[in-house]
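User: Show me a protein chain along with its predicted structure.
Assistant: Here is one chain, sequence first, then structure tokens.
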Amino acid sequence: MSVKSITRMPVILLFAVVAAAARPAAAQIALGSFATLGSPAEPPGIATGAGVFNLNPDHKKLDATRNAQLQGEYRFGDVLWIIAPFVGLMGTSAGAFYGYGGFGFDVNFGPNWVLTPTIAGGYWYRGGVLNLGSWWEFRSGAEIAYRLPNRSRLGLAFYHISYAGLCMKKKKEQSLLLNYTVPLR
């Protein structure tokens, strides 16, 4: 870990403390009669996921192979209006590591189906896997999940990780995961 990444740790920790101390959102936004934005009654939760890293590898590159991926996230719930911050860790079977923080929001389709678009940024360590071009990478994606009666969720998530133009190399990666989220209250 470099000196630059160590000096950024207090900022990340401050973000996590502020997000954890914030009060939950109190309102939903209706999108007609079929959908709402935000999940104000959703408690914080722990999400775990397993799936495929580098879903569509470029076979012309030697370091482009599919790998297993595991990840865990702490989801704070709707604490900033309809916005729900999260922090997470991801690792692959080839030794890559990604520590990240970001935001998402829920689009509810009835009481059970939830689409959650997300965006995050964080520290990338390539391990023995694809060099994405930078130590700082961005992740965008979405999860479609079914909310169970106990407020846990089971869903599929698709993510895209890239450097978003921070350097000259044009590398990116996609992941597909099965996620399970457990509420903490």
